[in-house]
């Protein structure tokens, strides 16, 4: 299946054939570009703190056995921040999306193999939630945390970390495989794709 096949709707196979041109020329390219922009801007958002302190993750990346950390930490920052902008506009989409897909898959692996432990539920944190947490949680949320000491809350946080990593990995992987689409810098200005 090619990108042309992916965004082509044969009129004879449609219930509403008159919608085919709209789907081909507007709806599907708009959705493809919109999702690409969303993935790119999410990477920019996550990369911004790393760009501000490019060496802040040296110990973290070395803990994942990426040596030397002084090289990988800034590279990770640039890949997320600059790469996110490139994906958002559709510039060099496939190679940048592939690099980010690998990085996001490692992120998923990290969240899956290093779950948030009970240490995150410190007595001080629970005391805060019970006494002054009203500004940050609803009364129902505080009651849920108080019932089991925060274990169910921690499970939800863990599941969200893993699920978001899977979603972003899959999304970046789509653009690594299929490219930026018809409304991308690659296709509109460069007239070439990887």
UniProtKB/TrEMBL annotation:
Pfam families: DoxX. Signal peptide: none annotated. It is found in: Cell membrane. Its main location: membrane. One of its GO terms (cellular component) is plasma membrane. The keyword Nucleotide-binding does not apply. InterPro entries: DoxX, DoxX-like_oxidoreductase. Keywords: Cell membrane, Membrane, Transmembrane, Transmembrane helix. The chain crosses the membrane at residues 70-93. It is a multi-pass membrane protein. It comes from the Bacteria. Belongs to the DoxX family. This is DoxX family protein. It comes from Pseudolabrys taiwanensis.
